[in-house]
Amino acid sequence: MNMEYKVQVTRLADGHAEAQVQTAFAQLFRLDTDKAAKALSRLPLVIKEKLTAEQAAKYRDRLQAIGLVAEIHPMLVVAPVPSAPPPPPHEVQSATAPGLQLEPIAAPIAKEAVPEVASRPAMRSPGMAFKIEGRPDFAFLTVTIPANETLKVEASAMATMDSHMTMTTKMRGGLGRLLTGESIFVNEFTAQEAPGDIGIAPAAPGDLAHVYLNGDVIYLQNAAFVACAGDVNLETKWQGLVKGFFSGESLFLIRASGQGDLWFNSYGGIIELDLDGDYVVDTGNIVAFTEGLEYRMSKVGGYKSLFFSGEGLVCRFSGKGKVWIQTRAVEAFASWAHQFRPAKGKG
Questions:
Q1: pLDDT of residue 35
Q2: How far apart are CA 247 and CA 196, in angstroms?
Q3: pLDDT at residue 247 above 60?
Q4: Based on the domain organization, do 109 and 239 belong to the same domain?
Q5: How much is the pTM?
Q6: What is the CATH number for 184?
Q7: Residue 84 has pLDDT above 60, yes or no
């Protein structure tokens, strides 16, 4: 018979703030923050039972990463006694992570507390736990995916992941992205049975930004999408010949809508602007903008400036919303680097 294990949290790790640990615990297991605080107030606590050694190690590592001291204990297998009724379970169950069990060891949950927790509507702590390193020049994203949940990642952007993660490839955006000649595939990574980490490295050197969508809509330039989670929907939007044809960029934008995490990247650093009125941005420096802003393409100066000044088409925004810009433009860098190309020898 294979040995089974349980994971137990014993105390808060030294040097960690209780409020931060409670928030991270709630995010990791998709719990109401009040429910997470109540559970952690009853330490020691059994988090999960009947695990393999590998699964138990994953749970322990995730818990220690957020500031909890976790231990792995083998489970004592006892033959069932038919005449003995099973004891009533005391557990707090996450609405979105059914695999999580929270069983107090030392102090049982008061009977009157159980209906109170069950009667409250499930509150989702916004967002998956993540960190961004290497910014702003070479930003690297690490996301902790809760057990049995999925993260959608731009094709070829995955750099590292835990061994129990599974991947499927799906088409997003329909025919639109097919016509652009770019990748039309998004890889979906699922953390099987236990939380797992995935490391994501965007193709362009630069920074990363994160937005939690709550019914909002953001438009991304075609190369900016990195990853999304939850119920975020991705689709392509036709800019039209008037808006996009002369911009030197793709005729398509990526429209992100719904609820959940959204990450996008830039070439260079990212600056977030709050607009209330008119504003002009070079087309090569636009990363993303919120729905509700009106925009149109126009040239700067006359036609001579388009060809000789180095300045060409700009995007004229109007209205109220946010625009994310990048501190460098790919085309400008390519033009600057062109002068250093070795000349072909004559002969």
A1: 84
A2: 41
A3: no
A4: no
A5: 0.59
A6: 3.60.160.10
A7: no
